[in-house]
Amino acid sequence: MEEDVQDRIWPMPKFYFTVTFDSLEKAVVFQEVTGLDAETDIIDYRHSDFSAIKMPGIGRIGTVTLRKGIFQSDTHFYAWYNAIHMNTIKRETVSIRLLDEKGHPSMTWNLQNAWPTKITGTDLKSESNEFAVESMELAHEGLTIVSG
Q1: N or C: which end of the chain has fewer CB within 10 A?
Q2: Residue 106: C-alpha distances to residues 23, 92, 137, 147 (Å)
Q3: How many C-beta neighbours within 10 Å does residue 34 have?
Q4: Does residue 132 carry a pLDDT above 80?
Q5: Structure confidence at residue 55 (pLDDT)
Q6: Mean pLDDT across the chain
């Protein structure tokens, strides 16, 4: 009996990934990445007196949010954010790689000319036993996806 494709190919798990920045030598460990999306506005174009056709309009890409644990003396992202002065922004390429079970990239999202728009520090609670987590939102000028 021939093996079905669904028995050989499985969706990738989303928990094994790395994030790299141009300015850093090694990958940064994040617990969550959200906002890897793009959309296009829809324009109704009047094709004739009685009908309209849908046309693609302006494309939009959202901000990407990265969440990670706070480590002692780790202020790289605050330094990057504080370097924004009067339209002078240090932009970087940020690569988010989804890894397979052997640690090899199976899909990569590249953010071109990314820069931080917002950094949120952790909330502090004396009765909590959770890790301190910070988040950073990145604006970028393009999202490309590479498979493999």
Answers
A1: N
A2: 23, 22, 24, 6
A3: 13
A4: yes
A5: 93
A6: 88
- Reduced to 3 states, what is the DSSP secondary structure of residue 80? helix
**How many CB atoms within 10 Å of residue 75?**
12
The tens digit of pLDDT for each residue in 35-69 reads 999 999 999 988 777 788 899 999 999 999 999 99
117-137 as b/e: b if 16+ CB within 10 A:
eeeeeeeeeeeeeeeebbbbb
Alpha helices for 9-145 (secondary structure H): 76-82
Q: How far is CA 10 from the centre of its chain?
A: 23
Q: 119 is written with which tokens?
A: 């950094």
Nearest Cα neighbor of 119 from 45, 41, 73, 63 is 63
